[in-house]
């Protein structure tokens, strides 16, 4: 199995530009999905932005006006631009990034060419595009770094909760993971599971271990790598078990984080965990051939450690390492409901329903009776 590095988005071409996730703003559709008229080479599509909405868009780096095209049979609405389509906004031609294949097409972001009041999108085609739909919508685009900070503050699963969860799922995990046996102090064989310290996405060492709320396995993935993986085409599926693992259901595992902090040495890539959640590092196989005193330093490094002997990581230090937090008010409400029993004032209602979406009502002064009426309206030729 090879690391899935190709699935990660390339670093931004502008070093000052951060990788960002994209979520639709609830009630934020400006132009409802529409088709082009058959054999119409040039069409104009008008929308309006209130001055207050335009000002908010320009002030907040995490909000954008997204225009995209997708195949009408694609329920995921993945961006897919026919080769003949060209787009300009307010007479400014825009460059469509199509990449190497149809999975690397990117939507257009329009706010930098928009103005308060009337705006016009002009679409030019040289071939029929009746199989595709176009949509203009407001999207929330928080930086990966700000999302990491939010998840650390709101979705850290305390070590004691992690241990309870691992113990509860242990028998089923051990049966499916291919287990080893360890002799307990009473001489009775105990089943132990092997857990990799490497991320299944990149095969690099995990920095911040996470899982989905519904995941039953002990194995974690690296949170930042998982967020990066979902920057462009957010499938939000666990790379270990393939279950849905949406942003609001992610959990940062403090117990596994403590293990990673305790084993800073790169000579260990795995640990074994027993039913009591005691763990010990597994040496890389080449080291097993080294002859050493049974009571020497190498043997001591392999000693089993119980949860009570562990030093748990300092969350605030990790948040500080991620850099300065978002400007107050600039990122909107927190999209991460806090864990039960965890301190915090997050609002679980910010991500309603089964998918990831951002609740922008109130920030944009949308009329309740018509979500797009106050921001945009009208399609087709003016």
TrEMBL record:
One MF term in the entry's GO annotations: transcription coregulator activity
One biological process term in Gene Ontology: positive regulation of transcription by RNA polymerase II
Keyword flag Nucleus: yes
Limits of the SP-RING-type domain: 184-265
A Gene Ontology cellular-component term: chromatin
Biased composition range(s): Gly residues: 343-352, 373-382
Region (Disordered): 320-382
Tagged with keyword Zinc: yes
Compartments, as annotated in UniProt: Nucleus
Keywords: Isopeptide bond, Metal-binding, Nucleus, Ubl conjugation, Zinc, Zinc-finger
Protein name per the record: SP-RING-type domain-containing protein
């Amino acid at each position: 199995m090879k690391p899935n590095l190709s699935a990660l988005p390339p670093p931004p071409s502008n070093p000052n530009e951060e990788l960002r996730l994209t979520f639709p703003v609830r009630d934020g559709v400006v132009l409802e999905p529409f088709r082009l008229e058959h054999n119409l080479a040039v069409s104009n599509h008008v929308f309006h932005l209130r001055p207050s909405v335009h000002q908010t868009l320009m002030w907040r780096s995490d909000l954008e006006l997204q225009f995209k095209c997708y195949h009408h049979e694609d329920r995921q609405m993945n961006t897919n631009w026919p080769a003949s389509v060209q787009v300009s906004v307010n007479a400014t031609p825009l460059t469509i990034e199509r990449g190497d294949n149809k999975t690397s097409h990117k939507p257009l972001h329009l706010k930098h060419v928009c103005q308060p009041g009337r705006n016009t999108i002009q679409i030019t085609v040289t071939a029929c595009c009746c199989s595709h739909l176009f949509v203009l919508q407001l999207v929330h685009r928080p930086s990966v770094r700000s999302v990491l900070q939010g998840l650390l503050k709101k979705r850290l699963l305390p070590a004691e909760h992690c241990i309870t969860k691992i113990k509860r799922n242990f028998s089923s995990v051990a049966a499916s993971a291919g287990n080893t046996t360890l002799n307990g102090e009473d001489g009775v064989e105990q089943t132990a599971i092997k857990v990799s310290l490497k991320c299944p996405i990149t095969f690099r060492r995990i920095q911040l271990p996470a899982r989905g709320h519904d995941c039953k396995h002990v194995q974690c993935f690296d949170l930042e790598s998982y967020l990066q993986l979902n920057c462009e085409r957010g499938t939000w599926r666990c790379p270990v078990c393939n279950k849905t693992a949406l942003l609001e259901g992610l959990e940062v595992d403090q117990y596994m984080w403590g293990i990673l902090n305790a084993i800073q040495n790169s000579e260990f890539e795995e640990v074994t965990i027993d039913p009591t959640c005691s763990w010990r590092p597994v040496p890389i196989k080449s080291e097993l051939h080294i002859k050493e005193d049974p009571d020497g330093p190498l043997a001591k490094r392999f000693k089993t450690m119980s949860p009570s002997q562990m030093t748990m990581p300092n969350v605030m230090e990790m948040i500080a390492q991620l850099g300065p937090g978002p400007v107050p008010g600039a990122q909107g409400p927190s999209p991460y409901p806090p864990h039960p029993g965890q301190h915090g004032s997050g609002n679980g209602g910010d991500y309603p329903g089964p998918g990831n979406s951002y609740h922008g009502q109130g920030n944009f002064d949308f009329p309740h009776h018509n979500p797009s009426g106050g921001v945009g309206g009208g399609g087709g030729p003016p």
